[in-house]
Amino acid sequence: MADACPPDDAFYEHAACGLLVAETDGLIRRANATICRWLGYEADELIGKVRVQDLLTVGGRLFHQTHINPILQLQGSVAEVQVEMRHRDQTRISLLINIVRRRHGDSHLDELALLVGEDRRAYERELLKARQTAEAALEARHGAEAKLHEMNEQLSLADRRKDEFIATLSHELRNPLAPMHSALEVMKLRSSGNAALEPVLPVFERQLKHITHLVDDLMEISRITEGRMALRCAPLDLGTVVRAAAADVAALIDASGHTLSISLPPQALVVDGDATRLTQVVVNLLTNAAKYTPRAGRIWLEAARHEGQAQITVRDDGIGIPQQSLASIFDMFSQLEPALDRSQGGLGIGLALVKGIVMLHGGDICAVSEGVGRGSEFRLRLPLSAAGIGADASASAPVSVEALRVLVVDDNADAADTLVMALELLGCEAKAVYNALDGLAQLAEFRPQAALLDIGLPDMNGYEMARRVRAADSGAAITLIAATGWGQSSDKERAREAGFDHHLTKPIDFDQLQTILTLVKQFQSPVVPKSGTDHHFRIF
Ligand code: ADP
Hints:
With 540 residues, the chain is an alpha/beta fold. It has 3 domains: 2-120, PAS domain (Beta-Lactamase); 231-383, Heat Shock Protein 90 (2-Layer Sandwich), CATH 3.30.565.10; 405-539, Response regulator (Rossmann fold). Helix content is 45%, strand content 21%. The protein contains 15 helices and 17 strands. The protein has helices at residues 8-13, 33-39, 43-46, 58-75, 117-190, 200-225, 238-255, 275-291, 337-340, 350-360, 413-426, 436-445, 462-471, 489-498, 510-524; strands spanning 18-23, 28-31, 77-86, 92-104, 107-116, 234-237, 259-263, 270-273, 298-306, 309-316, 364-368, 376-383, 405-409, 429-433, 450-454, 479-484, 502-505. The strands form 4 sheets. A 5-stranded antiparallel β-sheet has the order 2-1-5-4-3. Strands 7-9-10-12-11 form a 5-stranded mixed β-sheet, with helices on one face. Strand 3 and strand 4 (92-104) form a beta hairpin. It binds adenosine-5'-diphosphate (ADP). The site of adenosine-5'-diphosphate has 21 residues, from helix 8 and helix 10. InterPro entries: CheY-like_superfamily, HATPase_C_sf, HATPase_dom, His_kinase_dom, HisK_dim/P_dom, HisK_dim/P_sf, PAS, PAS-like_dom_sf. It holds the Pfam family Response_reg. This is histidine kinase. It catalyses: ATP + protein L-histidine = ADP + protein N-phospho-L-histidine.
């Protein structure tokens, strides 16, 4: 490496700065080749003949006398002073000078290092330009970030509005479904032997069920996105869930000509879960398996213990899922191209709902497929419960609701009247009124044993009416059922506080209503309830 260095002389002569040595009065003693080149002189034209100040412009000379020299005398050095020198051809050269005054033997000499100031200025200009460019880029980036933030806000707002819209839409769509369900019940009970009605009623029922299902799905997904879905968890055996789900889809599987194989472990797989919701999850997965598998396919449903967790697997040999869609398939409204023609009117929210419910249970779910045409598998995992299984509620034997007096209070006359008709066909003595005050008047007149109250009544809301019923003489014994379009837990809580015994969400599930009325009849009949049975039963 040392060989590669220039010899001292060459280094001195051709240094990247001009070098001068002068006596304290300015007479030049040495000058390197660099400064000679810059000024247009030969060294021997300068040495011993010219003083440093002779090379300066008039202004430079003045500055030398008033500033440079006194400072040198005072502190022995000056740094980075800017002066102008004259080239031999009289052009001006701007130079930056450092000077050190040093003792050599008996005398002092000034050692000067000179840099061309123009270069430094150009360099500083470049630096400034680069800084301005960087600042402009930074500002642009801040601007872009602010814009992105604003767009993000707008997107979140739009997303919130969409969620609110879906919640309101599903709620509004539910209202007209209530009277339609009741009307259908009436028609079904009256249609026997009617050749014109009998064939169309199943169509009506299927379509009504389908639309109710879609609206329910919409409602459920908005409950999940808005964090309003509350689970009613208890230790339960997943075997029960699997069996219930399989029974639920049996007709669909049959109609599609598929074969369903079920595998359950010998011992119970107990998780802390909401039986209804988990059954809904498995039903959704099985329904998809049936939908997205060509006729006469195979479906496998398995529950097993896997790596310390409970696992439910639903597998089919159907149309499969492309690799790149396996994760996004759980996003809301995601429907895949090859499946679209088979979606049979789905909205693409079933799997989003499934994932939401599974996650609320502290579990997870994933989809596996070897690709299009290679079948699909959904693996759902849930934490195992530490607790055992609680005693099953004993199913009550069917009891007739014959002659049970039921008051229906609803300002939607269609809904009230059709419900009364359906109740009458069951054998109840039912009566409809369309506002709360008329309803209260019926307490003494009609002496209802059960009353179904709409919450959104015109003269006072259903909660207030329930409080007044409870305060009335005969009010304590009446079974009060709230019927609302909203099924949030806060609504249910409010209903409970107001004195309701049950809460039903519209459209009213007629089977559920019938169960409640059966129990009302059972408890209000002279038969003493079985010991251990909770007399004050509630369906909330
Ligand atoms: P929907 O069935 O109403 O379209 P889902 O959320 O249940 O909505 O399913 C979303 C999409 O996932 C479906 O449209 C379909 O493309 C795909 N998919 C779901 N289950 C299966 C399956 N078992 N096999 C193939 N594709 C499926």
